[in-house]
Design brief:
By secondary structure, the protein is an alpha+beta fold. It contains nine helices and 18 strands. It has two domains: about 130 residues, 3-Layer(aba) Sandwich (Creatine Amidinohydrolase, Chain A, domain 1), CATH 3.40.350; about 220 residues, Creatine Amidinohydrolase. Helix content is about 30%, strand content about 25%. Strands 4-3-2-1-5-6 form a six-stranded mixed sheet. Strands 7, 8, 9, 10 and 18 form a five-stranded mixed sheet that branches. Bound molecules: zinc ion (3 copies). One zinc ion binds next to β8.
Amino acid sequence: MNSMLSSHTYAERLARARAEMKRCGVDAMILSLGHDMPYLMGYLAMPLERLTMLVIPQDGEASLIIPRLEGPRVHQMNDVFTMVPWNETEDPVAIAHTLLGSAQTIAVGDQMWSRFLVDLLVHRPNAKYVRSVTVMEALRSRKDAAEIAALVAAGAAADRVAAQLHAGDIPMVGRTEAEVSADISARLIAEGHQKVNFAIVAAGENAASPHHHAGDRVIQYGEIVLCDFGGTMNGYCSDITRCVHIGDVPQDIADAYAVLLRAQAAGVSAGVVGSSCENVDAVTRAIIDEAGYGEYFVHRTGHGIGMEEHEDPYMVSGNTTPIAPGHAYSVEPGIYVPGKWGMRLEDIVVATENGPMAVNHANHQLVVLNR
Ligand code: ZN
Ligand code: ZN
Ligand code: ZN
């Protein structure tokens, strides 16, 4: 990913990260793979064996340790960070150790390869290590106006694909789940995504497996088909789930879907600033429990979304984090009857001072298709 924002924005984000480090008693933060680093300076590290690491002292300038051959990929911003290229025969972890100076408490990016952390532990056995989420959650979980605009645009593109699905533009009967998945993926790209992150297509009893991998199962007339898809557009993710039914809907599925629809809408409405993340989960679960499907709702209600498909905050029992303006997350309750069928309904929501703002507007009904 190339940097898309001004160096001023990145400098500002780094300043906020440093303030948060100070508040949390973190002396330095080291980031590598994952999205904390591009959030702060625009560059997404290559997931390879050579170390790329952004070292951010709480009170000192940030340095990007990078393999010399990958240096040209980086958009340099002298007011944001200094490049520290390393040669093939150098030990980049030793360079990191030097740059860390006297830091005692070090925040480490979740997705940094453990091999580099293990090597660093040899250099600094007595340092205290914490996860970078301690510092970064406050920044990344609350989206600014530009980030919300990107999420809305990605969501609108996913909605257009959902509309094509509902219109019957994507034939189902006689095709494999994998074929339909490839079709949905191509449409996500055609609608403006640069990358498809997943396109789950699960027919009939396969829909009872929430993270089913689209396979060679042929879709039949008379089945429910669960489609959960999303991708990345201009650095931000979409994620939507809609179910369609091929032919008339049997009573048991219609009854369950009515409950799911109610639960999901209630979950969206529950996203009120000051309420808790776990309350969103409690609200959808109560409706599904009360209708007698509680044992079939086997996952949390939602996850935060932004540069990553799944990130903080999570809408799950035990997460007492208060919902704050700029929190962006999914509301996606499901009902899964093993061996029979499954259903899920998912929208992305952004919390605002004026109440929850839905990112997705595609038809929420169980649309009936005939082919
Ligand atoms: Zn999922
Ligand atoms: Zn999701
Ligand atoms: Zn999803």
